[in-house]
Amino acid sequence: MNIDEIFDYTSFTIDREPHIVLDNQVCVGCDNRGCTNSCPARCYTWSEADQKMTFVYDGCLECGTCYVVCHRNAFTKWSYPRGGFGVAYRMT
Amino acid sequence: MKKQFQAIVVGAGPAGSSAALTLARAGLDVALVERGSFPGEKNMFGGVLHRLPCLEEFFPDFWERAPLERHIVKKGVTFMTGTSSFNTTIEAGAFDTPPYNGYTIFRPRFDNWLAQEAVNAGATLITRATVDELVYKNGTLSGVTIAGRQGELLAPVVIAADGVLSFTAKKAGLRQPTFDPGQMAVGVKALIDMPREIIDDRFGLVRDQGFANEFVGCTAGVRGGGFLYTNYDSLSVGLVFHLASLRTSGKTPYDLLNEFMEQPQVAKMVCGGRLQEYSAHVIPEGGYDMIPELVGDGIIVAGDAAALCNATGLNLEGINLASQSGVLAGQAVIEAHKSRDFSKRGLEVYRRLMNDSYVMKDLKMYRKAPHMLHNDRIYNEYPEMVCSMMESIYRIEGAPKENMTKLFLKTAKNKVGLANLAADAFSAWRSL
Question: Nearest Cα to B301, choosing from B133, B145, B176, B168?
Answer without folding.
Answer: B168
